[in-house]
Model the fold of this input.
Amino acid sequence: MAMVTDIGAPVRVLSWSERSEPEAMYPDGIDGAVAEMLREAGGFDVRTATIDDPDLGLSEVDLEWAEVLVYFSHVRHREVDDATVARILRHVQQRGLGFLPLHSSLDSKPFQELLDHPGRLPGWREDEKPSRVWVVQKDHPIAAGLGDGFVIPAEEMYQEPFNIPPPDELVFVSSFAGGEVFRSGCCWYRGAGRVFYFQPGHETYPVYYQAEVRRAVANGVRWCAGR
Done:
C-alpha cells in the first residue's frame, strides 16, 4: 500500500550512516550532521541510526516509520546484507519511501539495486580543491534558494562517466579543479518512491556544515517525501 501522508505534518526522516567518518570532523557522525541540519531547517521529525544498531538500524519498524531514508556509506557497503537491501527496495518501490543516498553511497547496495547499475567511477581525487555546483534546472524544488549554484571550498573530485541510467530529472552538475565534471544532483522515480542522489560530502571535509549544502539536502528530503 502506498504511503498516506498528512502534508501539514513534519516529514519523518531516518538519517543513517555507517559511522566510518572521522569523529574530529563529524563527532555525531554524518547521520547526526544531517539530523542537525534538518532540525535547524524546521519541518522535519528526524531519527538517527547506524550500521552498528540492531538490524543495522534499518529494521522493518524503522523503515515503516520513515517517509525518507537519508543514507551515507563509504567503506562498509558490503556489510549491508541482502535481506536489508530487499527491505529498503520494497519500502521505496511499494510504499513510497524516499531514498537520498549521499556522496560515496553511489557504491551502496540499495542504490545499485534501485537503479540497476554497478556503482563505478573512472576516478576520484582528494586534493582539497574547490568544486563548483551548478544549478542546471532552476525551477526544480531541490534548487530552491540556490540561485545559479555555489562553490564548495574543498571537495573530493568525482568524474564522468558516472555509470547510472539517465536521471529522470537532473538538478546539479559539478565541476572540479582539473576540468572534470560530474552529474551531482540526480532524481529518479522508482515505483511509488523517489530517489535523489547528491554527490557533495566527502567525510574528511566540512561539506555538511556549509549553508548551501544544508539547503540542498533539506530541499532534497522534501522532494523525496513528495512535499
